[in-house]
Amino acid sequence: ESANGGASGGPHTGTTIVAVAYDGGVVLGADSRVSTGTYVSNRASNKITSLCDNVYLCRSGSAADTEAISDYVRFYTSQHISETQQEPIVKSVASILYQMSYNNKGLMAAMIVAGYDAKEGGQVFGSPIGGTLVRMPWAIEGSGSTYIWSFFDDEYKEGMSQGETEQLVLKGIAHAMARDGSSGGIIRLVTVSKDGVSRKVFQGKEIPLVLGDMAEPQTNAATVVW
Q1: Which residue in 9, 44, 147, 187 is deepest, having the highest Cβ count within 10 Å?
Q2: pTM
């Protein structure tokens, strides 16, 4: 995700966002790096936004555009909840976002809507730049997604548990961060299920090492500390 800026004056986008559905819910994940051109303007941004209690949004693209869209969707969703007096289904919230994105094609916004409802269970909807809406078992977006399509093609399995899904999302984002210079920082996970919402943050040594990463040097008796 990027702030507007850079030599050309336009947005330079870069991020990695992921959402995967499992039996009983969904897991959303994102890195935390925000860049302005080649400058990292925020190394601990939260790119996973709540639209309502049971639906969340992963944002990539221009930070200003995606924040504006999420604010509007949250507002219209709250009105919908007030009128119906019940928890919205995930597809309804995703459809509001689709309308906002489709009718404003100039926005630099590639997003993933994911959540849980009693009618359909865990659901993931991809909304790439241009404003379409596609339901899928898993979705990835951002510059880092280029490096991990084959990883998810190979590692995703139907019928995974919550723990297996969280590990899949964690490892996938770690792979993207190791390859993509515009993805980095910490990894945030949000799990939405019938039991509610849980959040996890992974940083430093907690982020899995992947091939090509250098492990932290180990001290030994011969180490001299000046």
Answers
A1: 187
A2: 0.88
Q: In the structure encoding, which two tokens stand for residue 52, read together?
A: 């309502």
CA proximity to 16, closest of 225, 181, 150, 166:
181
Please state, in angstroms and rounded to a whole number, the distance separating the CA atoms of residues 189 and 200: 5
| Tokens at 15, concatenated | 């991020």
pLDDT tens-place string over residues 98-115:
999 999 988 999 999 999
**Residue showing tokens 């991990």:** 148
Q: Scanning the structure block, which residue is given the tokens 């299920």?
A: 193
169 touches 18 (CB < 8 A): yes
Measure the CA–CA gap between 45 and 51, rounded to whole angstroms.
17
**Chain segment 12-33, per-residue pLDDT in tens:** 567 999 999 999 999 999 999 9
Q: How far is Cα 140 from Cα 156, in angstroms, rounded to an integer? A: 12
Handedness of CA 34, 100, 102, 122 (dihedral sign): positive
* Residues with catalytic roles: 15
Run of H or E including 40: strand 39-42
The residues facing 57 across adjacent strands are 49, 113
Rounded CA-CA distance 38/27 in Å is 30
Report the C-alpha gap between 141 and 129 in whole angstroms. 10
Distances (CA, A) of 98 to 103, 104, 185: 8, 10, 29
**Would you give the DSSP letter of residue 211?**
T
